[in-house]
Amino acid sequence: MQALQHSRQNPRFKGVFPVAPTTFFDDGTLDLASQKRCIDFMIDAGSQGICILANFSEQFLLGDDEREVLTRTVLEHVAGRVPIIVTTTHFSTHVCVERSRRAQAMGAAMVMVMPPYHGATFRVSEAQIYSFYQQLSDAISIPIMVQDAPASGTPLSPAFLARMAQEIEHVAYFKIETAGAASKLRELIRLADAAVEGPWDGEEAITLLADLDAGATGAMTGGGYPDGIRRITDAYFAGKREEAVEQYMRWLPLINYENRQAGFLAAKALMKEGGVITCEAPRHPWPGMHPEVRKGLLEVARRLDPVVLRWGR
User: Fold this and answer.
1) DSSP 179-248
2) C-beta separation of 312 from 41 below 8 A
3) Is 175 labeled as catalytic in the residue annotation?
4) Residue 147 is inside which H or E element, if any?
5) Each residue's pLDDT tens digit, 264-277
6) Would you say 235 and 243 are in contact if contact means Cβ atoms under 8 Å apart?
7) Spans of all domains in the chain
8) Would you identify the CATH topology of the domain 15-309?
9) 1, 36 in Cβ contact below 8 A?
10) Which one of the listed residues 175, 184, 268, 272 is annotated catalytic?
């Protein structure tokens, strides 16, 4: 019997795949015990998969040796309970390929990769971006998620993304976080159809409902409240759009607070408050969260009673 072709209607991965924060001690060294508890909480709270080493994981503050330690620690600790996406972004094709090969060898289900960029001005042409993803695809056998985020400063048109989906074997998932995400998802799906196995929402779910309406089948959010995001996506995928709208409106104040006020420190603050992790501090020179912002975040969260505030108590 011939295996079913993977497509948007038959994806390998679907649902809520939040980004795990990277946990540190007060002195900035890795806290692997907290990291494991963080992962356990995220699974218990309903994550259908987890992404590590993303921007929301403070990947830009990590050394290469620490990336290796974190990847191995998480994959061994998860032990197949949920699929793990490993972010392997780097400007260098060679470095990205080697990172991705090692992630695959350790058990990653997918790699997430931004287009090559460095700082505010170092970019490459569309032809070089295509070659970058082609060489990456040739080097591995797991799916590649293209992260289309403002941080790269690299315009990726729906037509170009669709071309890569149709022509590059393992380029199959797309996390769209740019302005007008729903319109871009809709156009990408129109142009590439089944070649786009996973059109995904990102940016803390601030545009989740519109993106679901546009055809998104996955959501990569912050890691603090996957149980809340699941209430939205589960209802939507079950054909209960009105229930999904109600849940989205209920959780939107917390989503908005994370997206517009607290950023990637939101998940850590919630996890620290709920006894999941030992320390919520980012790594220097990133500043800690202002006490008033933290107070506001917790006030909004407590009205929703997310699992994170009870998990470690």
Assistant:
1) TTHHHHHHHHHHHHGGG-SEEEE-GGGTTHHHHHHHT--EE---SS-HHHHHHHHHHHHTT-HHHHHHHH
2) yes
3) yes
4) strand 144-148
5) 999 999 999 999 99
6) yes
7) 15-309
8) TIM Barrel (3.20.20)
9) no
10) 175
